[in-house]
Known about the structure:
Keywords: Kinase, Transferase. Belongs to the carbohydrate kinase PfkB family. One of its GO terms (molecular function) is kinase activity. This protein is α/β, with parallel strands linked by helices. It contains 11 helices and 15 strands. It has helices spanning 35-45, 60-71, 121-124, 137-140, 142-158, 179-187, 197-204, 215-226, 275-290, 293-307, 319-326, and strands at residues 3-7, 11-15, 29-33, 50-53, 55-56, 80-81, 88-92, 101-105, 128-134, 161-165, 192-194, 232-240, 246-253, 258-260, 264-266. Strands 1, 4, 9, 10, 11, 12, 13, 14 and 15 form a 9-stranded mixed beta sheet that branches. The chain has a 4-stranded mixed beta sheet with strand order 3-2-7-8. A two-stranded parallel sheet has the order 5-6. Helix 1 (35-45) packs across helix 9. The longest helix is centred in the middle third of the chain and has 17 residues, at 142-158.
Amino acid sequence: MKKVVTFGEIMGRLSPPGYGRIVQAQSLNLTFGGGEANVSAALAHLGIPAAHVTKFPDHEMGHAATAYFRKVGVDMQYVRYGGNRLGLYFTEFGAAMRPSKVVYDRADSSFAHLDPKEFNWKEILKDAQWFHWTGISPAISESAAQACKEAIKVANDLGITVSADVNYRKNLWQYGKSVQEVMPDLIAGCDIIVCGKGDAEDILNIVPDGITKSGWESVCKQIMAHFPRIKKIINTKRGQISASQNTLSATSFNGKQVLKSETVEISQIVDRIGGGDAFMAGYIYGNLVLKDEAQSLSFAVAASALKHTIEGDINLASLDEIETVMKGDLTGRLKR
């Protein structure tokens, strides 16, 4: 099977043990994660060949991050080294009515200062069938946005499926260009996007027309009219009961009809970070293996729900576990 390629920043993640707060921590656990890399890792764990493209500083932190993702099966041969630092983020896990919190320390990372010429996309993508990126990468720096744009163009030229979680992060856009200036050109090269009503308004100035019964469907139709290459738009819906208990479902629009998944209840959240990445990986897996839209949505929701029970950014749920949730079995019954 040809590989899936992802592109984006990987950061070090520091968190107090258990449910401790940052202000009371005397030690911090270190792992690594990044929205796009988490997708590759989850796919590799499910047996799909996956490679990630990024830039790290050429010191112990950069090499540790490379080793971390290699250990879960991600092809890291396209990593470039240079610059001064690895971006970091600090997180504390919420419980009941206390929400989880994330603090970023990512300015001036090696990824932010990458040179687009460092990446030979024709070589990187020559054996690929899918390229995935998110709206985080072009928000970090102009050079990262340019590298992403070049990757999308090559992927389009090679006939590779391109997907994106457009994922607007207002505080990241600090280098002088607005999201509206940069993102439309990148979205134009996509076949599949993850996009909700809020992102559509913030990035594309598209709002529901007030006529179509479903506001999200109205937004999807307008996006597809503006970007004819897009074949499918997907989105997740989270029900927030508390920091410890959520519900999760998803929808898909193919230009003609909206398809909705079942709703899965997550009764005891361990770590919700990476849940969206697990959903995207599950959806890609469904498209490549199951080749049925309803099954792909169901697989993606089940994968994301299980990620909420696993520490760290990466979804390490097994195929059997995901299929069990797909069948509606949420008991967590002991298997031996």
